[in-house]
Amino acid sequence: MAQKHKSPFRAMALYSTILSQLAGSVLIGIFLGRWIDGKCQTEPLFLVIGLLSGLAAGILAMLRTIRRFDSGD
Questions:
Q1: Total structural domains in the chain?
Q2: Which end of the chain, N or C, is less packed with Cβ atoms under 10 Å?
Q3: Whole-angstrom Cα distance, residue 14 to residue 29?
Q4: Which residue stretches of the chain have pLDDT < 50?
């Protein structure tokens, strides 16, 4: 059984990838929700929907990234 390489740079790359995926998806969801709210005059509805869907997308992307990191690909 081969031991995986544990490098601090690899850990920093993983953390920065997770951070950018979470922050990016939440921000995209918020801005898209605000834009739809502006078009439809439904002020907080799509903002909340965009926030929650962006958070869910970020968590799914984070889990996929961690799974890929653990498998060694």
A1: 1
A2: N
A3: 23
A4: 1-2
- Is 7 part of a structural domain of the chain? no
Residue 40, both tokens: 């439809």
**32 belongs to a structural domain:** yes
Q: In which domain, by residue range, is 31 found? A: 18-68
Task: Please give the structure tokens belonging to residue 39.
Answer: 């078009």
d(CA 56, CA 25): 9
Evaluate whether 46 touches 37 at the Cβ level (below 8 Å).
Answer: yes
In order of 5, 13, 23, 64, 65, the CA distances from 2 in angstroms are: 9, 22, 34, 23, 22
CA dihedral in degrees (55, 57, 37, 30; nearest 10)? Answer: 50
